[in-house]
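hi! just following up on the protien thing from before. the input was this:
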Amino acid sequence: MSESSRSASETPLSEAAPQRHLSLFDSTSIIVGIIIGAGIYETTPLIAQNVPGVWGLVGAWVLGGFLSFVGALCYAELATAYPRSGGDFVYLTRSFDRPIGFLFAWAQLWVVRPGSIGAMAFIFARYANHLLPLNLGEAESSGLLIYAVASVLVLSFINLMGVQQGKWTQNILTTAKVLGLLLVAGVGLLYSAPPAAAPASPPAEPSTPNFGLAMIFVLFAFGGWNEMAYVGAEVRDPKRNILRALTLGTVAVAAIYILVTLAFLHALGLEGTRNSKAVAAEVLDLGLGGWGDRVISLLISISALGAINGQIFTGARIYYAMGKEHPLFAVLGRWDARLGTPVWSLIVQGVITLAVIIGFGWAGADKGFQRMVIFTTPVFWIFLVMVGQSLFVLRRHEPQTPRPYRVPLYPIPPILLCLSSLYMVFTSVDYALQPFNRSYEAFWSIGLLLVGVVMCFFDPKPASSEESA
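and the predicted 3d structure came back as:
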């Protein structure tokens, strides 16, 4: 393996470099805050429609939590062995050398991160505009676009102000969204809809249950458990707290999701959950009356903001690592010692994200979320497959690297991570190519990846790099 694949990630920390400011609570808040976006609210009825019964619905969430936990264990070994900024970028560079690491960071910069942040921004816009309509003329999409753009601008600015502001914003938003979900669960477990409120003559079972499709929605709702790895250089006592944050965050989210699902089932029944257009709002209406709709809109807005803030915080660390390793993007590798943030990474990330939001939302912001999913999902899962492979590669090629934590039952967990990620690649590509989804978003992501491949040939190695035997 070339020394160049290790150069930036092993350079001694200077004064203008990441400092270990993040406590265990901060780190866990990042994971929980990113995972719990709006998925649990939006996808539960869709999952219920594609499983054969109550146990199928609960089992889908349990399986999703299990697969996410397995992935978190794999990341715990990688992140504690290489506790540096950049996460996947570091692992892929060390495993498959500079071009693959570069292509991962390129894909994050132009496709995955703008699309993921944009998807949550459009969800926030939808519910914020419901609470406080902000439409110009007759077009609802104008208000949605304004809210989506404003959320990214404001949260990017907060993170630019410093790491303390970014982490406290994340802690507050995460705490609020967890308390909101517990409120939904509490109401759902205490109240239930009268039989007369059930939909008339619903089908006893879904006509064509599709457990595979249900798992797509489940794993989408669990997305983000790997984000902890990107801030490894800023975690206090990383050999202990990275593992704790990954496991605590993933297990906590799985427990919350299962609890909330049980509350939905108790309050509305299986058929009520399947046929609900706003499942959490209907549950809260049982206990809060007419306030339920507004309360749930506020909770979902807060949840989306927490996911946006967490992804802005962690994403900038990927480009910082990219800039330290690749001279072509050296400006992104500058760390502001006074603010404790990668300022240029945050600025560039914000500009690209805003361009993607405006570009995909201009013709119709009401379809922004779906467009972002088609734009980002296949690319994200392709690289997650490679991260699973990197665990095998690094164990074989760098056995001397201290590993404070080793994934149990090796090699079963990384095999499961690779297989589940491959499944998501194929199903997300199939979803993107369906006639009702087929559009230019997928072509844009493919085109941007091809540009990244070309850019690899123009990316010089650092001047200090030397090939090692």
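The radius of gyration is 22 Å.
Confidence is low (pLDDT under 50) at residues 1-15, 196-201, 465-469.
cheers
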